[in-house]
């Protein structure tokens, strides 16, 4: 009990420099002690006020602002760190524990990721297989479609070739003109709703009427 | 009720937000999720991630106000979550074709605080929050800071009827002692 008491005192004295007699230094005043009032010769002295140049005051302001910001952030950081350490101590968590915990979580996650990766590979393979089949079907369809198209075109060409025999060319244009003059065809006639032709060409009718009028 | 408009406004109710189960570890500073929307048949693997973003992300944000939550849309073939730790570590969680519930349970297991820790923290918070408590770490150091309570004996002596000196000794004994 007594020993504990003594040890307490000794630790305090060794850590707290204020209690150590060796460290105590009395203040010696060279001129006026603190407790004396202003000297009579200085009572009405008005100290001259220092006026900083504008630029310099701005610069001082900037430097001070920077300093305050930096010190504040540093202070906050340190406070936060200390608080965190305290909290960790309360929870009995050391950095090693935290690292171990992280590794444990990482391992769990790794196995989960691997499971998903396996499933995904399977799924992608399946999808690829389906896609391959679909592409094959598409190709087949395309070939078929092209074949059909080709047939249609060939038939058209045949038809055109056949029709080309009756085309009017430079050689037979005179004959064609003669034939056309010999057999005039007029398409201006009436039709009923079913498309049946009704009567003669209008021009013919009109020419007939005109002829009749001119004869008498 | 005002503001109860839009899709599933229940997501904005306090009760819903409070009932979130994911409380991330303190070391996690950023929570990012990549997923796709609106790409038709390829979206099946993203359905869980979409549901997670739609239903659970508000709760997660509410429960973890100090964590930055980022969502990236239509920038990935498969959905995944990436958490960034304070010390630069990262953890990548694949959530390809997983449902919302599966994702939540896995997140709680991997990046969430354990139930034990949560219980301890609630206890600590209660201690700090309760205005009736006093002492170190509380809002007031001593009961005597409240008006109408007895001041600390070190500041101002206790009333005589509370002091052993006056109630444990007999009157004449006291007089002798003082002499």
Topology:
The complex is a heterodimer of chains A (216) and B (179).
Chain A: H1 2-15, H2 54-91, H3 95-164, H4 173-182, E1 190-191, E2 197-198, H5 202-214
Antiparallel strand pairs in A: 1-2
Chain B: H1 14-18, E1 28-35, H2 47-63, E2 68-73, E3 80-85, E4 90-94, H3 100-110, H4 115-129, H5 164-167, H6 171-178
Parallel strand pairs in B: 1-2
Antiparallel strand pairs in B: 1-3, 3-4
Helix pairs in contact in B: 2-3
Describe it for me?
The complex is a heterodimer of chains A (216) and B (179). Chain A is mostly helical and 216 residues long. Chain A has 5 helices and 2 strands, in the order ααααββα. Helices cover 67% and strands 2% of the residues of chain A. Mean pLDDT of chain A is 85; it is low at 1-14. Chain B has 179 residues and is α+β, with helices and mostly antiparallel strands. Chain B has 6 helices and 4 strands; from the N terminus they run αβαβββαααα. Chain B has helices at residues 14-18, 47-63, 100-110, 115-129, 164-167, 171-178; strands at 28-35, 68-73, 80-85, 90-94. The radius of gyration of chain B is 29 Å and the shape is elongated. The mean pLDDT of chain B is 88. The chains are: A mainly alpha (216), B alpha+beta (179). Chains A and B meet through α2 and α3 of A and β4, α3 and α4 of B.
Short characterization:
Chain A is 67% helix and 2% strand. Chain A has 216 residues and is mostly helical. The mean pLDDT of chain B is 88.
Q: What descriptive keywords fit this protein?
A:
heterodimer; A: 216 residues; mainly alpha; two-stranded antiparallel sheet; B: 179 residues; alpha+beta; Glutaredoxin; 6 helices
Helix content of chain B: 25-40%
Oligomer class: heterodimer
Unreliable segments of 5+ consecutive residues of chain A: 1-14
In the predicted model, the low-confidence regions of chain B spanning at least 5 consecutive residues are none
The fraction of residues in strands of chain B falls at 5-15%
End-to-end Cα distance of chain A, whole Å, is 165 Å
CATH class of the largest domain in chain B: Alpha Beta
Backbone shape of chain A: elongated
Decide which structural class fits the backbone of chain A.
Answer: mainly alpha
Helix and strand content put the structural class of chain B at alpha+beta
Number of strands of chain A: 2
Backbone CA Rg of chain A: 58 Å
What number is the mean pLDDT of chain A?
Answer: 85
- Please describe the biggest sheet of chain A, giving its number of strands, its sense, and whether it closes into a barrel: 2 strands, antiparallel
The number of helical runs of chain A is 5
């Amino acid at each position: 009990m007594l020993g504990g008491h003594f040890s307490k005192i000794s630790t305090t004295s060794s850590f707290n420099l204020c209690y150590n007699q060796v460290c105590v230094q009395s203040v010696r005043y060279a001129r006026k002690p603190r407790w004396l009032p202003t000297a009579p010769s200085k009572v009405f002295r008005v100290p001259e006020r220092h006026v900083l140049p504008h630029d310099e005051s701005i610069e001082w302001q900037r430097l001070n602002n920077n300093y305050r910001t930096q010190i504040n952030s540093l202070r906050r950081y340190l406070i936060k760190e200390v608080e965190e350490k305290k909290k960790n101590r309360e929870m009995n968590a050391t950095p090693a524990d935290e690292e171990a915990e992280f590794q444990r979580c990482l391992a769990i996650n790794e196995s989960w990721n691997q499971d998903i990766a396996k499933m995904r590979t399977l799924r992608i393979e399946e999808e690829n297989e389906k896609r391959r089949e679909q592409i094959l079907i598409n190709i087949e369809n395309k070939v078929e479609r092209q074949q059909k198209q080709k047939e249609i075109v060939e038939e058209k060409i045949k038809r055109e070739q056949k029709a080309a025999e009756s085309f009017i060319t430079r050689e037979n244009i005179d004959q064609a003109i003669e034939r056309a003059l010999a057999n005039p065809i007029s398409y201006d006639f009436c039709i009923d709703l079913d498309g049946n032709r009704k009567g003669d060409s209008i021009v013919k009718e009109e020419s007939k009427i005109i002829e009749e009028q001119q004869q008498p | 009720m005002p503001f109860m408009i839009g899709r599933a406004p229940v997501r904005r109710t306090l009760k819903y937000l409070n009932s979130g189960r994911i409380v991330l570890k303190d070391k996690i500073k950023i929570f990012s999720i990549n997923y796709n929307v609106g790409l038709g048949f390829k979206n099946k693997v993203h359905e869980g991630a979409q549901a997670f973003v739609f239903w659970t992300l508000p709760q997660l944000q509410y429960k973890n106000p100090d964590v930055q939550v980022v969502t990236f849309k239509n920038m990935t073939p498969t959905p995944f979550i990436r958490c960034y730790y304070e010390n630069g570590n990262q953890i990548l969680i694949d959530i390809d074709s997983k449902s919302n519930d599966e994702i939540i349970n896995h997140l709680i297991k991997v990046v969430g605080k354990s139930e034990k820790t949560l219980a301890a923290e609630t206890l600590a918070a209660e201690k700090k929050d309760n205005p009736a408590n006093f002492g170190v770490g509380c809002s007031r150091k001593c009961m005597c800071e409240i008006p109408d309570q007895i001041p600390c004996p070190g500041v101002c002596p206790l009333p005589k009827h509370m002091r052993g000196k006056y109630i444990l000794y007999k009157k004449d004994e006291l007089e002798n002692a003082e002499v």
